[in-house]
Amino acid sequence: MSLALLIVEYLDRDVLAEVAATSNRPEFIAEMLDYAIKDIERSAEPLMVAIAHERWNESRAWAHAIKGAADQIGAFRLKSAAIAIMQADSSNLRDSRSRIIAEFSSAYAGTLGALRDAGRDPLALRR
Hints:
CATH superfamily: HPT domain
Distance between the termini: 22 Å
Number of strands: 0
Number of helices: 7
Helix content: over 70%
Strand content: under 5%
CATH class: Mainly Alpha
Number of domains: 1
Order of helices and strands: HHHHHHH
Largest sheet: none
CATH architecture: Up-down Bundle
Low-confidence stretches: 1-6
Mean pLDDT: 88
């Protein structure tokens, strides 16, 4: 899949351009993308473990952390998946666990792929 297609599907190019414009340092956007990847990865595994063990409050806390990281870089599909977890009540999380995990996992994998691809050519993200 091309960088342009990944960005359209998983990342908001305008948000990435705004992030890139906050610094004159050429390496800034690459550093921000790398930080976002690490932040999202750091929260995703504990989120999946919490859901698997039916620790719903913990699941919501990890989803909240992912929502914040996703919002900062324009990863709105991942943000929406995290919000769905945050807003679901415990019985809905339990009953829909497989679907929720599948939707989150898809958004997570696609977002990380798009972030990594964007990091390969960060100057292309500037307006």
